[in-house]
Every structure is written in structure tokens, then in C-alpha cells.
Amino acid sequence: MFCYQCQETAKGTGCTIKGVCGKTENVSNLQDLLIYTLKGIAIYAVQARERYLVRKDVEKFIMESLFSTITNANFDRSRFVERIQAGLKLREDLKQAVVRVGGTIPADLHDAATWTAPAEEFEKKASFVGILSTENEDVRSLRELLIYGLKGMAAYAEHAYTLEHQESGIFAFIEKALVATLDDTLEAGDLVALVLEAGKYGVDVMALLDKANTTTYGNPELTKVNIGVRNNPAILISGHDLKDLEELLIQTQGTGVDVYTHGEMLPAHYYPAFKKYDNFVGNYGNAWYKQDKEFDSFNGPVFLTTNCLVPPKESYKDRIYTTGVVGFEGVKHIPDRADGKAKDFSALIAHAKSCPAPTEIETGEIVGGFAHNQVMALADKVVDAVKSGAIKRFFVMAGCDGRMKSRDYYTDFAKALPQDTVILTAGCAKYKYNKLNLGDIGGIPRVLDAGQCNDSYSLAVIALKLKEVFGLDDINQLPISYNIAWYEQKAVIVLLALLHLGVKNIHLGPTLPGFLSPNVVKVLVENFGIAGISTVEDDVKMFMA
Ligand code: FS2
Ligand code: SF4
């Protein structure tokens, strides 16, 4: 195996024996083969599109497959074997469809579009098509940067899709980019251009998801979220899928079972639509990597709608339920919606009733809900505070949290920031500073949480709006600094989206991606001023200078 797609990759260079995340060698290899299979499907999908043949089943398959390979989503070998088999079948079906609409199949097609093998030979095949099969270090780096951007894009597209929002242009780009990663005639410059184009679609997909979420559930609003517990049996829901949450809330009504959020599901509390459920009690715990302790003390069933799942401990494994693209061998899985009906949570609810109430680990409240609409409602106050000098600088500290000790930097950085600064956050990165009680500036909290990682889009909308209000030509003239923490591939598409919007001098930590070759880093530094982090003291000084 060779995987270097996340921030915690072994030695900062690549997991080669087993993933630091817990991914096994065979799952890693099968994920590589699945990506290769998608590239083959994309070859025909591009041809089909040229002939105005748009196959919704192909778009959905590519989207879900990319999403399933994201860090901490699916560890189940059999699910990848089935997906590759289904992919090969779909590829052949699509090929026939292309022929039917008058397409001709070239004789010299790439192996990705023609290979086939029985399941027993998948791993052998995988050993020829993995990341290291691209020899040139820079081309490999750019191809993988593009693929990771696509994985993040696919994750967001999937959430929007679930809420019946989709855009063909996004799928067309995904197909085009997948094919480009097979093209040996493309040079580094061509791939850089594609990576930057991915940023444009990153903005589009986050805007689409924002529209899907806000038109379905209302605009997030200033909300106090309880972090304590009640004395009822309960279900803990984690991940990013709001539709799963909605159906769970509907089905738990009147059952005596409470519902709490964990990790990235916390921002669900900010949406008006979920406030009517009186059993939607609060948020339990912190970011994903603390689940080994927090799922234990929660006592009831835990429902993972998307990443981040950590290989479960035996002590609570029988209480874990997955759904959608998430999976782990030996863990119960809630099947997808069929025939327009909701998912069936009866087993989960019955399980909860047999469990004790959660053990309290914290008490109090946290404040959030500062997505673009809420911040714009406070715009006058914010603009006045900037004009009067009460707010000197904003810090976008969006992204991910993770296990590494070096991430304490973000807590220390938040504490060390001058009192006249405001943190704009989104994603599970927030847990490093959302319980610090950093106070407020004239009623504006010093930590403004917009929501999940995709709500980084809100932070960009806010920046663009402020640029307009202050009559500036360039987003970089605003008193906003970017100190972003990354972990998995959704952070990659968020980063590319920010680059597309023209944001410069983004600092990325706790370490720069292992998949960036020195030359690719050089391009990012020279063109966009991307940099890493150093010490809290030096960085605060540098940002405030
Ligand atoms: Fe956090 Fe994990 Fe949101 Fe990432 S819960 S690192 O998937 O997407 O952020
Ligand atoms: Fe390693 Fe991250 Fe890949 Fe897991 S996802 S195998 S930790 S690089």
C-alpha cells in the first residue's frame, strides 16, 4: 500500500504498512483500484457527454465512490470489492451506450477503460495502478492533489444530491479531471491549471450545498448549544449528513429517546428546522478523534452518517451504526433510502431504549450559527467595529481537528491572539478553541462558528461582502488572515476554492501535505504565498504586523 492523502500520513510522507487512520493494506489497495476503475468509467462518460448522453447513474456512482475513499469513511474490504465489480459492469454498460449514440471506441484506449479481472485478482491489479505508478514526482503530486480535490468535491456534491440539488457542470468536471490524471501527454503546467480549475468547482459545489442546506432547513442563526446531558436513553449522531439527522429526529419523536450531535454534526443545531424537536438535546463531546473515549461514555448507540469514523473499540463496537458511504467490517449498517421512503431507524431506536443515559462529560453551552446570513444581519455592527478599530483583524481558522499533539498550536494561537481580533471558523477545527470563552467585542463573539467544513463557503461570502462594503479592489486588502488546519480531502477542496477566489498568503498546518512535492510547494508559495506555521509567538507577530 501507499497512501499519503491525509495530514496524519506516516512520517509525513506516506503510510506503507498500515494506515495511521487504521486503514488496512488491502482496503488501501482496493481504494486505489476503485479510483482507477472510476478513471476508466470517466473515459466513456466524457465521450457520452460529448454526444449529449448524460447518465445520472454514472454521475452518482463516481460521486459516491470518490466519497467512499475519503479518510475515515469506509474500512470495509467487501464494500470496495463490490464497488469495483459494480464499476466494471457500469463501465461496460456505458461503453455500449456510447456506441449506441454513434460514438466510436478507439483501438488504443487506456488500460483503465479495458481491464477486467475476477475479484481474487483485484489486489494484484491494484499493485500496478496505485499512486506510485506515476514515476515523475511532480506529475504524481499534481495528479493526487487533483484527485483529493475531487474527493472533497464529491463529498459535498453528495450532501447536496441527497437534498435534491445537483449541477451537471460539477460532474462533467470530475469526469474530465479523472481522465486527465491518466494522460501522460499533460505537463505539470497543464495539471496546475486543472488543479486551479478544481477550485472554481469547489466554490460551485459549496455554493450548491449551501443553497441545498439553507433552502431545506433555513439559514443558520445565532444559537446556544447545550453541551450537558439529560437523563434519557439517547442516540449520538455524527458526520455531516443533515437529511439523516432530519429522518432520525422525526422517527425518535415520542419514543423517549433523545438525540445528541457529535463532531461535525454540531452545526445542525444552528438550523431553524431542527429547533422544533424537543428531544434534540445538544452536542456531546468534541472532534472526531476523541470518539474512542466519548463513544464509550455516551452509553447509547452511535450513528455515523459520514466520516470521520475511527476503527471502533470492542467496548462500544456493537453500538456503532453506519450508513451511506461509511462502513466498517462487523458494524451494523443502515441501508439507503428506497422507493422514496425514509431510512429505517427502528433498530437504532430499539437499541437506544436498552441502554443507560449518557454519562455527563461537560456542562454549559457553546455559541454558533454565524454563517453568511447571520453575519450579514450583524453587518452594520461588524463594519462599525472595524471602522472604530474595536476589531483590528479577523482570523479564518477553518478546517479540521486531528490527533497530533502539534495541533495544540491552534488552541495556544487562539488564546494568544490580541483581544481586538475575531476568529472565523468552520469545520471540526473549531473544537480547538470553541470552549475557551474568549469573550466578545461589543456583543460580537470572538469566535464566530459558521458551521461544518463546507460552510467555509460562508466565510468566503463574508469576506467578499466586506470587500464590497469597504470598497476594496482586492480581497487581500481586507484585515483578514488565514491560518487553516487541514486533515482530510475536504480541506483540500476548501483550500483550492479559496485560491480560486484569489485569497493569498494562506497558512496551512500543522504540517504541509505530504503529497506536495518540493516543486509543487514552490509553485504554491510563489503564486499564492502559501506557507506553513511556526511558533505561536512568531506567527501572531507576523500576522498582526
Ligand atoms: Fe472533521 Fe473529519 Fe468536516 Fe473533516 S469530522 S476532519 O471529515 O470533513 O472536518
Ligand atoms: Fe495514512 Fe491518511 Fe492514508 Fe490513512 S488516509 S492510510 S492515515 S495517509
From TrEMBL:
Catalytic reaction list: A + NH4(+) + H2O = hydroxylamine + AH2 + H(+)
Membership in a protein family: Belongs to the HCP family.
Coiled-coil regions listed in the entry: none
Provenance organism: Desulfosporosinus nitroreducens
Necessary cofactors: [4Fe-4S] cluster; hybrid [4Fe-2O-2S] cluster
Name of the protein this chain belongs to: Hydroxylamine reductase
UniProt keyword list: 4Fe-4S, Cytoplasm, Iron, Iron-sulfur, Metal-binding, Oxidoreductase
Modified residues (Cysteine persulfide): C400
InterPro entries given in the database record: HCP/CODH (IPR004137), Hydroxylam_reduct (IPR010048), Prismane-like_a/b-sand (IPR016099), Prismane-like_sf (IPR011254), Prismane_a-bundle (IPR016100)
Superkingdom as given in the UniProt entry: Bacteria
Classification lineage: Bacteria, Bacillati, Bacillota, Clostridia, Eubacteriales
Binding of hybrid [4Fe-2O-2S] cluster, residues: H240, E264, C308, C400, C428, C453, E488, K490
